[in-house]
Write a structure and sequence with these properties.
single chain
């Protein structure tokens, strides 16, 4: 089997594009992964992103917002309502931005590393154990 390049696949996944061709959309809606690419017919049913993108989003947003929150609080001492409002909006906006991109990157990583059936050469219906 030919090796699939990981970094181009991750960039395409981050852009929410098919990791195989880069032309077709990977997601249908906000987070729903398509069953296949409309351009190259790459099957996406083996993907198992599950909760990984949500965990990564929480990790990244938490590690970015917590130090910024502490810096702003210590340096400027804003009113609590102002601080809560600004950082709540920032946290939600950053989370909504990152979540579909991280999901696309995670599906692309699975595709590039041939995980969860992406490397299968035969379809389940024609696999030798099913005949």
């Amino acid at each position: 089997m030919a090796e699939r390049p990981t970094w181009p696949a991750l960039r395409r996944g981050w852009a929410r594009r098919c990791p195989n061709c880069g032309a077709g959309p990977l997601l249908k809606g906000y987070l729903k992964v398509r069953e296949s690419c409309p351009v190259c017919a790459q099957d996406f049913t083996p993907q198992r992103a599950d909760d990984g993108p949500a965990y990564l989003t929480i990790l990244i947003v938490g590690h970015l917002m917590a130090p910024i929150l502490m810096y702003v609080f210590v340096k400027y001492r804003p009113e609590p309502v102002t601080l809560i409002t600004i950082f709540s909006i920032g946290t939600v906006a950053l989370s909504l931005y990152l979540l579909p991109r991280l999901k696309g990157a995670m599906v692309a990583l699975q595709w590039a590393k041939r995980m969860h059936g992406f490397g299968r050469t035969t379809t389940p219906a024609t696999a030798p154990e099913n005949l």
